[in-house]
Amino acid sequence: MSSPHALELPKIFEEAQDFLPLNGTDHVELYCGNAKQSALYYQQAWGFQPVAYRGLETGSKDRVSYVLRQDKITLVLTSPLEEGGPINDHINRHGDGVKVVALWVDDAAHSWKETTSRGAKSYLEPTRSEDATGSVVCSGIHTYGDTVHLFVERSAYQGVFLPGYVRWDPEFRPKPVGLRYIDHMVGNVGWNEMDVWTEFYSKVMGFTQLVSFDDKDISTEYTALMSKVMTNGNGRIKFPINEPAEGRKKSQIEEYIEFYKGAGVQHIALATDNIIETVIELKKRGVDFLNIPDSYYDTVLDRVGAIDEDLAPLKELGILIDRDEEGYLLQLFTKPVVDRPTMFFEIIQRKGAQSFGKGNFKALFEAIEREQESRGTL
Ligand code: FE2
């Protein structure tokens, strides 16, 4: 690999400004056409546990939301209860997809002030809400596409999720599958927009660039993309940003942009401590993963060296392996989990490696292209 594209070691502690300290991801909210049924999917197939609910019964007249959690991952599924309005508009334009990437902060007013003063467009001015168990302050800014970041300050709150929600405690509780936290969340943006949005994360949110790939790293016969990974000061938040690059046929990024009608969250990477057990369970429950050709496994150990796991179950399950200077990682990708070929999930287990599976991109994209071919969108 030529040096301009080699892994750049993070200088996060030297470079990062701490005007926006982030404790982690607070939650991810999807706008979807039928939150009740989506909630059952995330329980049954993914092992998320019911946490909280708001809807007509709680006085929420215009929207219904289900909150589900698995270890540190909190999903909110929201559907509109009336015609018109921003949630319907979002679904009409994008299909089901991520609206809010909420970040957990100690001071939501400060976070809003620091980011808007650096050029972020306000989505929500700092707003306090409260119930009998305490108070929460939320604020928000716009990011790529129609996606927004909420800053959630909840240190003075003891309730189940946020004011307005009640405990959701159904008897039906399929077991968790071992998902632990959000490792990273990837945004797809349009042609020539990658640098606009990496600059946004660096200037407006004080993130630094961890690593970049270009079309020489990430290309197959047909498809190409460019990617830069942005991370916050303590490294807990990682946002890779992809943009399409010129290829012989339509890239998966272009396909996403075309069906999502613009920029948006492409995939959410969920970490597990035992990818083999997690993936066996997910498959048993109906989650569809990209198929990796058997030939991948003929040479993978020549590339990555010795690993702790037996190769046989990895091959059986289609789990990919990559290595960097610090260790290795295991990962695999679902097919899109919504009707349009847009959002999907990654399952990742890190064994030292801090990178994102660059060595797998080619095998992975070839698998995605086979799927695109079947959709007639290659
Ligand atoms: Fe990823």
Outline the fold blueprint.
Blueprint: H1 12-15, E1 24-31, H2 35-44, E2 49-54, E3 63-70, E4 73-80, H3 85-94, E5 97-105, H4 108-117, E6 122-131, E7 134-142, E8 148-153, E9 166-167, E10 179-188, H5 194-203, E11 208-213, E12 224-231, E13 238-245, H6 252-260, E14 264-272, H7 275-284, H8 296-304, H9 311-317, E15 320-324, E16 327-333, E17 344-351, H10 361-375
Parallel strand pairs: 1-4, 5-8, 10-13, 14-17
Antiparallel strand pairs: 1-5, 2-3, 2-9, 3-4, 6-7, 7-8, 10-14, 11-12, 12-13, 15-16, 16-17
The structure holds fe (ii) ion.
Describe this structure as you would to a colleague.
The protein has 378 residues and is an alpha+beta fold. It has 2 domains: 157 residues, 2,3-Dihydroxybiphenyl 1,2-Dioxygenase, domain 1 (Roll), CATH 3.10.180; 197 residues, 2,3-Dihydroxybiphenyl 1,2-Dioxygenase, domain 1, CATH 3.10.180. The strands form 2 sheets. Strands 6-7-8-5-1-4-3-2-9 form a 9-stranded mixed β-sheet. Strands 11-12-13-10-14-17-16-15 form an 8-stranded mixed β-sheet, sandwiched between helices. A hairpin with an 8-residue loop joins β2 and β3. The N terminus is likely disordered. Fe (ii) ion binds next to β10 and β14. The site of fe (ii) ion has 6 residues, from β10 and β14.
